[in-house]
Amino acid sequence: MDWSKDDITIIILLIGEASGVFAGFCPSWFTVASPFFHEQEAKDGNVKRIRAGEIAATAIVVATGWAVASRSSNMLALWASIVICTLFIFGYEYQIANPSKAEKDNGSGEYPLLGNHYA
Fold first, then answer.
1. pLDDT of residue 111
2. pTM for this model (two decimals)
3. Is 9 contained in some domain?
4. Chain centroid to CA 38: how far?
5. Is residue 89 assigned to a domain?
6. 55 inside domain
7. HSE-up of 18 (CA within 13 Å, CB side)?
8. pLDDT for 64-78, tens place per residue?
9. Quick one: pLDDT at residue 110?
10. Which of 85, 99, 100, 114 can bridge 38 by disulfide, Cβ–Cβ 3.0-4.6 Å?
């Protein structure tokens, strides 16, 4: 398949659209990973709402991909929208399953992710 400038432009626009749509339905990955989110009594309800947001956002983004692909000579926009949504959903599910934790001194005076610049 030959890629045109229009195909690249469409992918860029779909990424931007997906970012906005997912942001409209779901909190940021930072918020979802935060201890505040995971320590709330309402966490289970919040997770259900995030998953509902994932479904709604995916439906909108994939519908956009389908609409663009149906007016194009190829199905790239549809496949790109599916891949983009998969990445967003994976990110949310990862943040839900792996809450943020404080970095700890590993005994060497260095913090594992920061090195000794901030010790």
1. 55
2. 0.79
3. yes
4. 18
5. yes
6. yes
7. 26
8. 999 999 998 889 999
9. 58
10. 99
Record the tokens describing residue 106, joined without a space: 């590993």
Counting beta carbons within 10 angstroms of the beta carbon of residue 85, is it exposed (0 to 12), middle (13 to 18) or buried (19 or more)? buried
How far apart are alpha carbons 14 and 65 in whole angstroms? 7
Which amino acid is residue 39, in one-letter code?
E
Q: What's the CA gap between 3 and 27, in Å, rounded?
A: 34
In one-letter notation, the amino acid at residue 44 is: D
Both tokens of residue 91?
């990110």
Q: How far apart are CA 54 and CA 18, in angstroms?
A: 11
The per-residue pLDDT for range 79-113, each reduced to its tens digit, is 999 999 999 999 999 999 988 887 665 566 555 55
DSSP 18-46: HHHHHHHHS--HHHHHSHHHHT-TTHHHH
In a domain, 115, yes or no: no
Spell out the residues 6+ positions from residue 75 whose beta carbon is closer than 8 angstroms to its own: 69
- Give tens-digit pLDDT for 13-30: 999 999 999 999 999 999
**Burial degree of 21 (CB within 10 A; 0-12, 13-18, 19+):** buried
User: What is the span of the domain harbouring residue 58?
Assistant: 5-97
